[in-house]
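re: the backbone from monday

yeah here it is again, tokenized this time
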């Protein structure tokens, strides 16, 4: 099922009883994310929230905020127009297993599968609802020295910047500012014309500039290097909203070189209509709720981006990233601003990641036929921990699977891969752990190795020290960012919670917990504001758990389950 706007998806959630509406004003600074965090940690992911009157600097925004819209198995399936994600995965698996027909019945079935692919290819249209309202900005000239980012250690700016009055969220107390957390970023390789759709957090510096947090291994960073080598401005477009399949496609582990809009078109069973941007030659979905057009200037120095409260319970400290300059903002008249937050799981991205695993499981099975199932438990903060069940036929087969998976996309950052027999339910963490501890010998059944460390990993050997830690050193081996600047070598995260500060769950208990009626979230707003009093705003507070006690080594071990 295709949705013509994010508002249509929100209305579908409302009709299905999957939405809570909050009609009273709620601040985009900390308050919305506090409500969302509590809802996301409710059983089954809670409900989606629609903040009808979000406030930016005390002023009610004309655009409502939708959050946690994909934060459950049911809502993920609804976004795909299916009863379950497994249903979609089975359809994709059947398509991938297609063979030349040997009978008329098989030919008809194959024809039907091919008919479904007619929607996969995107098509260009002249205009769309994303251009109901158009704001253009003059492009500034290149500059050698740009003003530094606000010093996060000196407190929050009393008048935090906005970007065209969008209800952009500040998620955690020590975040460097407001962040667009559900952006779909469109870039193109200047040599091949290859398009990429990715998701990278966007920190707002002022009304016309943002950070662009793409990491070295990302396709957009690779495109960026081409422009830096050419010395040309890099066109970039960011869109928000539209069909809920767009952010899912942007985060899906697509094979390199495949257009993410192909996946979105297949899943929504309708071609993605793309429209050319106003100030650059990139194309974006015609039904997007917001489009932010601009460029990155290779002659401009990098600028610190962050801190940002992240998945592991630590802040990612400031690091230099390219600066994105806004040249135009367009939006629908009835636009809804979708957002999400990241932090200690379970969060909304847990369900998005789980759907990706289910959807791409047939691809894993094509490479490794012995694989039965794969799970990424919430305790692994998305991809740090992977459970795999296999049909074991020979000794040491688990090691083959381990090394193979470590070579596939984002799984290169996985710290621990646990391989068990086919009869173990990998979606039951307790069951996996029982077999791990009851049926394995660590000396015999595990292996330690080295692998790449993600910049968001706060526990690895490769860390980056911020100003509190003292110095920054250039990376060994001459690692470079997309802009061609040296990457710091050491990183040390700050804890997102301080001892002695009221934890979120305690505040929740004091407020009596979330009520179950449709207006439940409104009841909690007052308690949230009490907890976010000025004394508490400066606290390093995130989620219900404190920081981890130890440091884990990058890489990890594979355990071969034996019975």
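seq for it, each position gets an aa:
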């Amino acid at each position: 099922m295709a949705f013509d706007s994010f508002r249509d998806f929100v209305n579908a959630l409302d009709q299905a009883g999957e939405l809570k509406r909050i009609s009273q004003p709620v601040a985009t600074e900390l308050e919305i994310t506090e409500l969302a965090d509590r809802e996301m940690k409710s059983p089954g992911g809670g409900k989606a929230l629609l903040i009808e009157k979000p406030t930016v600097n005390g002023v009610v925004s004309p655009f409502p905020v939708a959050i946690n819209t994909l934060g459950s198995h049911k809502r993920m399936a609804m976004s795909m127009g299916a009863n379950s994600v497994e249903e979609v995965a089975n359809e994709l698996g059947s398509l991938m297993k297609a063979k030349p027909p040997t009978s008329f019945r098989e030919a008809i079935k194959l024809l039907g599968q091919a008919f479904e692919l007619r929607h996969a290819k995107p098509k260009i249209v002249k205009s769309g609802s994303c251009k109901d309202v158009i704001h253009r900005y003059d492009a500034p000239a290149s500059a050698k020295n740009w003003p530094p980012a606000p010093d996060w250690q000196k407190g929050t700016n009393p008048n935090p910047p906005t970007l065209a009055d969008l209800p952009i969220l500040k998620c955690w107390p020590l975040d460097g500012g407001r962040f667009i957390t559900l952006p779909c970023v469109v870039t193109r390789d200047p040599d091949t014309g290859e398009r990429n759709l990715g998701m990278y957090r966007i920190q707002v510096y002022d009304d016309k500039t943002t950070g662009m947090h793409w990491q070295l291994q990302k396709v957009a960073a690779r495109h960026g290097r081409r422009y830096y080598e050419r010395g040309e401005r890099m066109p970039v477009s960011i869109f928000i909203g539209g069909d809920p399949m767009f952010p899912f496609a942007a985060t899906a582990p697509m094979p390199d070189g495949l257009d993410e809009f192909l996946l979105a078109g297949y899943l929504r069973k309708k071609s993605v209509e793309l429209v050319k941007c106003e100030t650059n030659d990139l194309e974006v979905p015609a039904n997007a709720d917001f489009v932010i057009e601009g460029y990155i200037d290779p002659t401009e120095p990098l600028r610190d981006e962050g801190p940002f409260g992240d998945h592991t319970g630590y802040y990612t400290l400031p690091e230099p990233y390219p600066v994105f300059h806004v040249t135009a903002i367009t939006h629908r008249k009835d636009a809804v601003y979708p957002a999400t937050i990241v932090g200690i799981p379970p969060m909304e991205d847990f369900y998005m990641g789980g759907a990706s695993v289910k959807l791409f499981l047939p691809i894993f099975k094509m490479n490794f036929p012995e694989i039965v199932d794969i799970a990424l438990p919430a305790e692994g903060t998305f991809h740090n921990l992977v459970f795999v069940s296999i049909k074991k036929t020979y000794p040491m087969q688990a090691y083959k699977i381990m090394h193979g998976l470590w070579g596939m996309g984002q799984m290169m950052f996985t710290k621990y891969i646990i391989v068990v027999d086919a009869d173990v339910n990998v979606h039951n963490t307790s069951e996996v752990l029982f077999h791990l501890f009851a049926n394995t010998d660590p000396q015999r059944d595990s292996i330690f190795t080295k692998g790449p460390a993600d910049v968001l990993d706060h526990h690895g050997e490769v860390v980056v020290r911020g100003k509190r830690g003292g110095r920054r050193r250039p990376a060994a081996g001459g690692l470079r960012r997309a802009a061609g600047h040296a990457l710091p070598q050491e990183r040390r995260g700050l804890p997102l919670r301080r001892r002695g500060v009221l934890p979120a769950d305690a505040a929740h208990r004091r407020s009596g917990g979330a009520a179950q009626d449709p207006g439940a979230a409104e009841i909690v707003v007052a308690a949230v504001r009490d907890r976010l009093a000025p004394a508490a705003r400066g606290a390093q507070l995130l989620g219900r758990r404190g920081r981890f006690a130890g440091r884990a080594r990058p890489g990890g071990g594979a355990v071969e389950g034996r019975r």
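Residues 348-455+553-560 form a domain with the UbiD C-terminal domain-like fold (CATH 3.40.1670.10). The longest strand covers residues 323-331.
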